[in-house]
Design brief:
The complex is a heterodimer of chains A (about 300) and B (about 400). Chain A has about 300 residues and is an alpha/beta fold. Helices cover about 35% and strands about 30% of the residues of chain A. Chain A has 2 domains: about 220 residues, P-loop containing nucleotide triphosphate hydrolases (Rossmann fold, 3-Layer(aba) Sandwich); about 80 residues, Alpha-Beta Plaits (2-Layer Sandwich). A 6-stranded mixed sheet of chain A has the order 6-7-8-3-9-10, sandwiched between helices. In chain B, the strands form 2 sheets. Chain B has a 4-stranded mixed sheet, with helices on both faces. In chain B, strands 5-6 form a two-stranded antiparallel sheet. In chain B, helix 8 packs antiparallel against helix 10, helix 11 packs antiparallel against helix 14 and helix 11 packs parallel to helix 15. Chain B is an alpha/beta fold. The longest helix of chain B is centred in the middle third of the chain and has 35 residues. Classes of the chains: A alpha/beta (about 300), B alpha/beta (about 400).
Chain lengths: ~300, ~400
């Protein structure tokens, strides 16, 4: 059996009238990349904050490597909050050492590791500069180093890609893959399904505080993978809607995913489509996470 | 505990390394010393000139008497005032001579000065009260003695009869008389109470701003992912408080030096400093600071921006200012019933009880009762504010209502 890094058991969290998270259970296998997906306001940040013990759940329990989470488990987790912040007046290395010490590191060890990570990311020359003198991109890198300075077993990233330019997005993805190779467990949240598609081993889809679906990404895709045709067209797609063998459709810009009736021949369908619209690209594919999410939310 | 210490250390360094801290730590004692030394020094410098004063004496009896009595000497042994006779017709020329700085001033003394009792003095610097006052004094006594003599009374007899009586203050402490340095001790106590008052207000705001800064810079979540909110708040309060204490110690040491030095610079008295009072000062300083600082931390956590924080700070400021004002108002009746009750009221105790101690040491049971109540209240307040802090710190946007804040305490 795979060891569970994080186990969330029937957790509920209310803020006054609002139930932010409702009877949520998740289990994050050790050494995996786990994505919590859902639209804004789904309860992702609340869930993550409960894992970090920033607030306690009203009901249910959370375990970190089989232990009840608490002040001690904070030290083995690295956390990058959605709202980032650093002390603008502190020097880069000084700040990293401070955050390291707050995670229970010895000062010397934090210094050594801080220098090593700054070197690796190309910011060594900035170690004695104040944070406010760094560019925004540099600050984001420093923030990430601060997250992993204490070599945590679990890394939790809340909306890590928000505010990143495409270049830094790629850098971050590579770093996440590297952490995985080192055997770390990575949990991250995002409202952009595309990021999850490429990175995740496991996903959980949540909506309005409730879990809609979870499991291994490849299994989920296999379950939904049949009968999906993805096309790109020129012009208006509305003539397609009269084709009887299409039971559902999802538009993502000029790309359209079509779900066929069970047992239909995709090539017959292609012929019918080409009679109506100009096709640029045609693919028999797996459903995208976007597609799956919308379908599941609609169905429930 | 290690994490709490890490936070306290960092907050301490953050405050101590600030330019404002260094400047105020060094500058305040200098200003303090300046108030004591400077006026004397300035006087000395200002007095070092001889002044020529022309006198138009229509009465005929003033000039000689004035010249005789205005005999103050410069350190060099020369007379300060040199008088010369002048005539009323020369007024225009005298004014010109003042303009040319040949003479410092001129007086016009009327024929009837015995009845009118006024004279005119012409000079550039009309705010030179010292010179004007001295001339006024000497002129008055010249006229009085002339007047007495003319009625056949010996002025020396009158002089002897109207001598002023001076009080020698002896404070009774624990049934013993204490004669030396009462004034200095009283001044020192007032200095310490003012210090307590200033430090609580000043450093309370440092805490509030620090919390607010972490909140608006969104650092707070990273902090909370490493330590719980109580440790965060406690670390801040202890770290910043230690910075305040550092400053106080520097200032108090300086003040002790200033007040007890053999230079006799403060009001000419040599004080002794009551060790007991110093001990109570430290106790009230620590407890009062902890109590008010937790209020300030909670305000920082609730407020969304600096303007909101300043608004919410006002009631807390009153809690500190009001006992201070009451304390000054009741200085002549420190053991009256309202003063006893108010000084035992925990929110007022740190300042008011300390002030009572400087007036007349209160009955011990009152002191101990107030300390016990203060410790209990401080503990409860820290408990409540840390809960407000925990909830408020992550709340952005709408400012919570008072009833919501109360709910957080129960939660």
């Amino acid at each position: 059996m795979i060891e569970k890094a994080i186990e969330i058991k029937s957790v509920t969290k209310r803020f006054g009238e609002l139930t932010a998270v409702s009877n949520l259970s998740l289990s994050v296998p050790s050494g995996s990349i786990y994505g919590i997906l859902g639209p804004n306001g789904a309860g992702k940040t609340t869930t993550i904050r409960m894992i970090m013990n920033i607030f306690a759940p009203d009901e249910g329990e959370i375990e970190i490597f089989g232990e009840k989470m608490g002040e001690e488990t904070k030290n083995i987790i690295g956390y990058l909050p959605e709202e980032r912040g650093l002390y603008p007046k502190m020097q880069t290395l000084e700040l990293l050492v401070y955050f390291g010490e707050l995670k229970g590191m010895e000062k010397k060890e934090a210094e050594r590791r801080g220098i090593e990570l700054l070197r690796r990311i190309g910011l060594y020359d900035w170690k004695n500069r104040k944070i406010e003198e760094l560019s925004k991109g540099m600050q984001q890198k420093v923030q990430f180093i601060a997250t992993i300075i204490h070599d945590p077993k679990i890394v939790i990233l809340d909306e890590p890609f928000s505010g990143l330019d495409p270049l830094n997005t790629e850098v971050l993805k590579e770093l996440m893959m590297e952490l995985k190779k080192e055997g770390k467990t990575i949990l991250f949240s995002t409202h952009l399904m595309e990021h999850a598609e490429k990175l995740c081993d496991y996903v959980a889809l949540i909506n309005k505080g409730k879990k809609v679906l979870d499991g291994s990404l490849s299994e989920i895709k296999r379950d939904f993978g049949r009968n999906i045709i993805s096309i790109e067209i020129e012009g208006d797609g509305s003539p397609l809607y009269q084709i009887p063998s299409i039971i559902d459709r999802y538009e993502f810009g000029n790309r359209i995913e079509l779900e066929m009736k069970e047992g239909e021949d995709p090539y017959e369908l292609l012929k019918e489509i080409m009679e109506r619209v100009k096709v640029k690209k045609f693919e028999i594919s797996e459903a995208s996470l976007n597609h799956i999410f919308i379908k599941v939310v609609k169905g429930s | 505990m290690k994490k709490l210490f890490t936070i306290a250390k960092k907050e301490y360094m953050r405050v101590v390394r600030r330019k404002g801290f260094i400047i105020s730590t060094i500058l305040s004692p200098l200003i303090m010393a300046g108030f004591v030394f400077l006026p004397n020094q300035l006087m000395k410098i200002a007095e070092e000139k001889q002044k020529v004063i022309a006198v138009v004496d229509d009465s005929g009896f003033i000039f000689d008497r004035l010249e005789e009595s205005l005999d103050r000497k410069l350190p060099t042994g020369e007379r300060v005032y040199i008088l010369e006779r002048a005539k009323r017709e020369d007024k225009e020329r005298l004014i010109e001579r003042i303009e040319r700085n040949e003479i410092y001033a001129f007086l016009i003394i009327g024929k009837d000065i015995l009845n009118t009792r006024f004279f005119e003095i012409y000079l550039k610097n009309v705010s030179d009260y010292k010179t004007i006052g001295e001339i006024e004094d000497k002129l008055s006594s010249a006229i009085s003695s002339f007047s007495l003599l003319s009625k056949g009374i010996n002025p020396d007899v009158v002089q002897e009869a109207i001598k002023k009586v001076n009080a020698v203050t002896i404070k009774v402490v624990k049934g013993k008389e204490k004669k030396t340095g009462i004034m200095g001790e009283f001044l020192f106590s007032i200095f310490m109470v003012s210090l307590l008052f200033g430090i609580i207000l000043g450093y309370g705001q440092v805490i509030m701003n620090g919390v607010l800064e972490e909140k608006t810079n969104r650092i707070i979540e990273i902090m909370l992912s490493s330590v719980n909110s109580f440790k965060l708040m406690a670390g801040k309060i202890i770290g910043i408080g230690s910075a305040g204490l550092t400053q106080v110690i520097i200032w108090v040491l300086f003040a002790i030096f200033l007040f007890s030095s053999n230079l006799n610079i403060v009001s000419g008295v040599r004080p002794s400093i009551d060790k007991n009072l110093l001990l109570f000062f430290v106790l009230f300083f620590v407890l009062g600071y902890l109590m008010y600082a937790s209020f300030f931390a909670a305000v920082g956590a609730i407020a969304g921006n600096i303007q909101e924080a300043q608004q919410m700070m006002t009631p807390i400021t009153y809690m500190i200012v009001i006992p201070y004002i009451i304390g000054i108002g009741f200085s002549s009746s420190p053991n009256s019933t309202p003063m006893v009750i108010l000084s035992i009221f925990p929110l007022f105790t740190p300042i008011l009880m300390l002030m009572r101690m400087t007036y007349v040491f209160p009955p011990l049971w009152q002191v101990y009762l107030s300390i016990a109540l203060l410790i209990g209240t401080t503990f409860l307040i820290i408990l409540a504010t840390s809960k407000i802090f925990r909830t408020g710190i992550l709340l952005y946007g709408k400012r919570p209502s008072f009833s919501e804040i109360l709910r957080w305490i129960k939660y």
